[in-house]
Amino acid sequence: MWSYHSSIKKGGIKVKIAFVCAEVYPFIKTGGLADVAYALPKALVKLGHEVVVMLPSYKQIPRGMLNDAYWVSLVEVYERTFNLYCVELERVKYYLINEPLFSDRESIYDNVDSDYQFAMFCEVTLQLLKSINFQPRIIHANDWHTGLIPFFMNQHYYRDPFYYDTKTIYTIHNLKFQGQFSSRAVRELGYSFEADRINYMQLGIEYAHKVTTVSETYAREILTDYYGENLNHILQKRSHDLYGIINGIDLDLFNPSTDQSLIQCYDINSIELKGENKLALQRRFRMEEKVNIPLIGMVTRLDSQKGLDLLMCVLEDILYHNVVQFFLLGSGEAKYETFFQSLRDRYPHKFGIYLGYDAKLANLIYGASDLFLMPSLYEPCGLSQLIALHYGAIPIVRETGGLNDTVQSYNETTKEGNGFSFTHYNAHDMMYTIGRALDYYHNRKNDWKIIIENGMSGDNSWEKSAKSYADLYDSV
Ligand code: ADP
């Protein structure tokens, strides 16, 4: 029977790490991947490691971010000239690879030649590290965009004395997106690859020295047919090198006692002040203005991954039968947008929505909500529930992936637990659990306070996770 690793040996050597990622906050962000690519290198540097971050220089990066960028090197690959610029932020060096292949595109993903773009990104990264003489002990690649790095290392670069001591770590942030293409681009770069089709993520998993994903539960889940996205058999073969390490949140960015997006800041000793944020949200979206109605918040991509089909089954029931308000911030699939809009039109005092992306509003929702709902179908790690915990909004989650590892259902006897959860992907189980949470809100004030305090006092900082990565680097 296969298994995966849940613990890593402790160590403490300073390591040179090249972290390679398609998106990195604050330069460019489409999702949680960018947050990790910002927070983890920063936390590793704090632990004493030397980290450089490699990313493409997209047109979408705000010019202001590059004001202090300086040119460092170039490489020529197949008649293209890739210039490398460096920006230093908080003791991390960010290297941006500039070429029209990245800087001339309207979109950062889903281009007709994405296969070629990201194959080039991987190839050029390996050449550029050499040209700037940054000899990494670890190259840490992330998601399908960089899955070719372990493959290229294995096929070619391991023979280069420069890379004799280099090991690769590959992190899966979301197994669903795999980069499946014709193998044309890789062959054009001079690598031999027999099959016509190629899967960049699969190659990352097969050829990296170690593979990680972003929670222990997800590391277990992806070995199964249900969650494995057709790569479970490949993952099973690597299960002895597969680790689950949970993400953290950046407490400088998400702190209710200093957050400028809030109408009223607060901390664990002044939770009652959250009510001011609730009133502000209700006023702004013309919901009934009342502080003692429980408000359930959601901030999410509108994608089936996030469990929205469960809401389509029972949300109207919940609104109709309960003293409760609901607020949703999100954007994505049209069928969900239409559903939520029509529900808002029928329950304008109870249900507020904002369809779009708005980071400031997101924080106000975390600050205003009593409960935060994440009934995900699958959730590799999830950041929203960590933010919610930190903002004293009690999470209601389905027990999957990182939600399972970070939210413990409250136990009234032991007074342990920081939220509410349900096991099966089932709308009535979700509705029952929401009912349970509302009962606590209305009738068990002492327990309610304990749950919030348990959540707000938990440690979801990056420091702990960065130590786990550092131990893994040591172990290879
Ligand atoms: P995923 O990466 O799968 O989208 P996570 O929970 O890991 O989900 O991270 C989502 C992050 O994006 C959270 O910080 C959440 O607050 C933020 N977010 C999601 N949707 C929106 C939105 N419409 N507006 C603002 N922030 C959003």
Keywords:
elongated; binds adenosine-5'-diphosphate; nine-stranded mixed β-sheet; 17 helices; 476 residues; six-stranded parallel β-sheet; alpha/beta; single chain
Order of neighbouring strands in the sheet with most strands: 3-4-5-2-1-6-7-10-11
Q: Can you tell me the residue ranges where pLDDT is under 50 for at least 5 consecutive residues?
A: 6-10
Strand content: 15-25%
| DSSP summary, beta strand count | 17
Radius of gyration: 23 Å
Tell me the span between the first and last alpha carbons: 24 Å
Short account of what is shown:
This protein is an alpha/beta fold and 476 residues long.
Description:
This protein is of the alpha/beta class. The protein is built from 17 helices and 17 strands. It has helices spanning 32-46, 100-103, 114-131, 148-155, 184-188, 200-207, 216-221, 232-237, 274-284, 308-321, 334-346, 359-368, 384-390, 401-406, 427-443, 445-456, 462-475; strands spanning 16-20, 50-56, 70-77, 80-89, 92-98, 138-142, 167-172, 180-182, 197-199, 210-213, 242-244, 295-302, 325-332, 351-355, 371-374, 394-398, 420-422. The strands form three sheets. Strands 3-4-5-2-1-6-7-10-11 form a nine-stranded mixed beta sheet, with helices on both faces. It has a six-stranded parallel beta sheet with strand order 14-13-12-15-16-17, sandwiched between helices. A two-stranded antiparallel sheet has the order 8-9. A hairpin with a 2-residue loop joins strand 4 and strand 5. The longest helix has 18 residues, at 114-131. It is elongated. The two termini are 24 Å apart. Mean pLDDT is 95; it is low at 6-10. Bound molecules: adenosine-5'-diphosphate (ADP). Adenosine-5'-diphosphate (ADP) binds at residues 31-32, 299-301, 329-331, 357-359, 362, 381-384, 387. Residues 31-32, 299-301, 329-331, 357-359, 362, 381-384, 387 line the site of adenosine-5'-diphosphate (ADP).
